[in-house]
Write a structure and sequence with these properties.
This protein is of the alpha/beta class. It has 15 helices and twelve strands. Helix 4 links the parallel strand 5 and strand 6.
Length: 415
């Protein structure tokens, strides 16, 4: 599944910190789009002593745009660095022409632009929250990719909505169920089941095998060119010529891993509702507001900036059921939960260690049965639960705030 951009052996260098950024005052162009934490990030950079220039353009997300380049080039040329959440080829192209450092912190997964040929530019400094993805890209020769834990914004609680009956719960989950009508898996299955039922059965078998494993990638191990070609007949998902994606990357990420995530989230929540829903208040905050699960109250969407922080703080247990395309990384949801002072119970993700300690800063589960057991345990051990939540909040506040994470990244790039 590896993709090689250049015949270079690259040592994996996890990002773990460096000297104080206050020694380096730089002019930063911030790519202004509707990303998470944009206002908090701009405020943090200014607080750190940097000059921040916000730049927005409708083609920021284009693969290539002469209009974007003509407007962005003079702004880019006058900057010390350009920063964006997520990576954009048009931004990288202009930064490369202007010989300006481009720093980008990825919080989305999957993300096809990380296989853009523009990733080879030496002006790129790409930070990823999933160490297994970093290793994959290093094997392909991309020396500008490093690991970084995603930042949280502990100050979110200052602007959060007041506590209310809606935000309070014993257990909550905030996230998509990926069971919307005409999702990729359903579209594929509807067309393939009549022609190649064995193909649909094979896909379902892979998903069943992967559902029992964390830390080992069955899906991408079995994603051959032949399998991708057969799936393409029923759902064309072909990368364009500007990308060097691994074989079947879009099928693995957008169809299979998303389908598996949907099944897991529905199964785990149903198990919780059946076992604990009659005695405890369990809430789901999701886009699919009409979806019903016995024992669970579907509250619809929790707005990210103001309501979600209060939900995290007011829930005795906050669940994370990771999107399966995040193989080892700590999802942004987890950092936000801890940053808001919430207790986090998550599936196993290898990158939590050594930064966070299970049973001390958060806790994790490895199966449906263990999820149920730990929910019952922590609902019955309030003092221990509250202490773990406080430990996680303190660690995030001290080491993984926006200022702390971006400070380390900027220092490392300038060094």
């Amino acid at each position: 599944m590896d993709v090689r951009f250049a015949p270079t052996e690259v040592e994996r260098r996890p990002h773990r910190g460096s000297r104080n950024i206050q020694e380096i005052i730089v002019k930063i162009v911030f790519i202004d789009w509707k990303c998470f934490d944009r206002e908090d990030t701009v405020a943090a950079l200014k607080k750190m002593g940097h000059e921040v220039i916000r730049f927005s353009h409708p083609d920021y997300n284009a693969i290539k745009s002469p209009e974007f380049d003509s407007e962005f080039a003079p702004v880019c040329a006058g900057a010390d660095v350009v920063f964006s959440y997520n990576y954009f080829p048009a931004v990288a192209e202009t930064c490369h022409k202007q010989n300006t450092d481009y720093i980008t912190l990825i919080y989305d997964s999957p993300y096809v632009y990380l296989y853009s040929f523009t990733m080879i530019y030496p002006t790129n400094h790409v930070y990823l929250f999933d160490s297994s993805w970093v290793e994959e890209l290093h094997r392909g020769g991309l020396t500008g990719v490093r690991y970084a834990v995603l930042p949280a914004c502990p100050d979110k609680m200052k602007q959060a909505v007041p506590s209310s009956e809606r935000t309070r719960s014993d257990i909550s989950f905030v996230g998509a169920l990926y069971n919307e009508a005409h999702n990729f898996y359903d579209r594929f299955r509807e067309k393939a089941i009549g022609q190649e039922p064995d193909l649909v059965g094979y896909i379902d078998g892979i998903l069943e095998a992967q559902s029992k494993l964390y830390g080992y990638d069955v899906i991408r191990e079995l994603m051959t060119q032949d399998l991708a070609d057969r799936m393409t007949k029923y759902l064309p998902m072909v990368p364009d010529e500007t990308c060097a994606e691994p074989v079947g990357y879009r099928f693995a990420s957008y169809l299979m891993e998303r389908r598996l995530t949907s099944l897991e989230r529905q199964r785990f929540l149903s198990a919780l509702g059946n076992k604990l829903g009659s005695d405890h208040k369990i809430k789901l905050f999701t886009l699919e507001k009409d979806y019903k699960i016995d024992g669970i109250e579907n509250c619809g969407i929790a707005e990210y900036e103001y309501e979600m922080p209060r939900v995290f703080a007011d829930s005795r247990i906050n669940l994370n059921i990771s999107l399966r395309s995040i193989h080892t990384g700590i999802p942004l949801r987890c950092m936000d939960i801890m940053g808001c002072g919430g207790f986090l119970l998550t599936n196993y993700q290898a990158d939590f260690q050594p930064d966070f300690v299970p049973g001390e800063d958060f806790d994790w589960y490895g199966s449906e049965d263990e999820l149920l057991e730990k929910c019952e345990y922590y609902l019955g051990h309030e003092k221990e639960r509250a202490q773990i939540a406080a430990n996680g909040a303190r660690k995030v506040r001290e080491n993984y705030s926006i200022e702390a994470v971006l400070g380390r990244i900027l220092s490392e790039v300038k060094e």
